[in-house]
Amino acid sequence: MVCEGFVRSLLFLSDCVEGNPVARRSLAQRAVALLWLLPAAVTAQQIGGFDRIGLEHGLSQSTVYAIVKDRLGFLWFGTQDGLNRFDGYTMTVFKHNAADSNSLSDNVVWSLLSDRDGNVWIGTERGGLNKFVSHEKRFYHFRSKKDDPTTLSDDFVTALFQDTDGNLWVGTQGNGLNLYDAEAGRFIRFLHERADMTSIAGNAIRAIAQDHRHRLWIATSNGVSRLDLASVRTRSDRPAIFEDADGEFWIGTYGEGLNHLDVRRVRIATYRAQPANRYGLSNDRVTAICQSKDGSVWIATNGGGLNRYSKRTKHFQRFVANARSDQAPRFNQISTLCYDAKHNTLFLGYFNGGVSGVDLSTHAWTHYTSTDAAGDPLWGSPITALLSDDPG
């Protein structure tokens, strides 16, 4: 419609200036300029106007910080005063209720995320992180606790992201980045340190994204950081996660080896089984991890026995079953570990049943199992957990 009218106008004007070269040249120049602007005018006409959703439609507050669409098709709006869910016709408002522990923890909503399981995550200004489970119609709260480093690092949550492995990343206003370990119910923190150029660029997190090479990009108030996730797999059939005395995390997978996560330097090292290397990891199926008071990290495997990792030498030392000696693990299929610091003794539980203990001071092994009527060892059900109580 616009093009047709424009062309007719040019033809009419051309007839009017017939025989006047100067006028025709001026008309041509103006026509070129108008044709240059014409696509923008046509595009704007095709787009049309915007529909507005405001207070008159039930929106709780007009300043909207975040929008997300969930798996059911609902639109969620995070505002300065409440969380809103829009079904296309009506608005449902969620706000904090001091009398209801299952309500939203804070009314100022800065960030939103709909995860692959259909849950909606809500980052607030003073109430930490919330997870809304639609079929339960309730909010779960994740707050920062000053003396607990396994909790959220800060209650002001500015950015939320789920990577391709399903891991949840949580950015805060002034206390760094968090990785949420859902199976252990804990957070792993990544903080900026001035003296460490390999730490995250800044503690005020603005946005999080992932590229096609499995790298995580974190925008901060002090630049951008990149974390390569290609070498780590925290999701497995039997994950083993352990935080050592230095605040570093060891993540064992069932088939993809061992990962060492240095949170301070935002650095990940992956160890895979190296049968031909006497100083390498013995098996990729890691079932349990713990640390002894000398700083050694102990790694149990299903099939490769026990491994001791030295941070000083960066070598693994293997302890495998030996049919000719009882001063070794009874089996190579180890299901669990427990360290008794009082007696400096490491206990091993086996998938085949039974328990062994090794005195790390004397290196003496002791094996525990039930016996039959003849006094012969009776191996039974797998040992799934060991615990050292306070008295030791």
Outline the structure in words.
- The longest helix has 27 residues, at 21-47.
- This protein is 11% helix and 37% strand.
- The protein has helices at 2-16, 21-47, and strands at residues 64-69, 75-79, 82-86, 91-94, 109-114, 120-124, 129-133, 138-142, 157-162, 168-172, 177-181, 186-190, 205-210, 215-220, 223-228, 240-243, 249-252, 258-262, 267-271, 286-291, 297-301, 306-310, 315-319, 334-340, 345-350, 355-359, 365-368, 370-371, 377-378.
- It is mainly beta and 392 residues long.
- The chain is elongated, with a radius of gyration of 31 Å.
- Mean pLDDT is 82; it is low at 1-17, 21-25, 31-45 and 231-238.
- Helix 1 (2-16) packs antiparallel against helix 2.
- The chain is built from 2 helices and 29 strands.
- The relative contact order is 0.05.
- It has a 4-stranded antiparallel beta sheet with strand order 1-2-3-4, with no helix packed on it.
Task: Please give a handful of descriptors for the protein shown.
elongated; 29 strands; 37% strand; four-stranded antiparallel beta sheet; 11% helix; 2 helices; mainly beta; 392 residues
- Give me the secondary-structure category: mainly beta
**Number of strand elements:** 29
Shape: elongated
Radius of gyration, taken over Cα atoms and rounded to an integer in Å: 31 Å
What's the overall average pLDDT, rounded?
A: 82
- Uncertain runs are 1-17, 21-25, 31-45, 231-238
Q: Report the portion of residues in β strands.
A: 35-45%
What is shown here, in short?
By secondary structure, the chain is mainly beta. The protein is built from two helices and 29 strands.
